[in-house]
Design goal:
Keywords: Membrane, Transmembrane, Transmembrane helix. The chain is built from one helix and no strands. The chain has 65 residues and is mainly α. Bound molecules: zinc ion (ZN).
């Protein structure tokens, strides 16, 4: 029968868990921001920046300067 684990050990484990959780939170936040930015850029690119109309059937490759 094993008793309660030493306080120092459990505290260390808790600290490691908190650290892992923190890293996961930061990573997920960064990923979320990245995806949101990408999505925003994609949505933004759906409209012409000049006339504001919906995407042109063919992109004006020439004449952009
Ligand atoms: Zn346009």
């Amino acid at each position: 029968m094993y008793g309660a684990a030493p306080a120092s050990r459990s505290r260390l484990e808790v600290r490691g868990l908190v650290l892992v959780e923190l890293v996961m939170m930061v990573l997920s936040g960064v990923l979320l921001g990245f995806v949101a930015g990408l999505f925003a850029f994609k949505v933004k690119s759906r409209w012409c920046p000049r006339c504001g109309t919906y995407t042109h059937t063919m992109p004006p490759a020439a004449g952009i300067r």
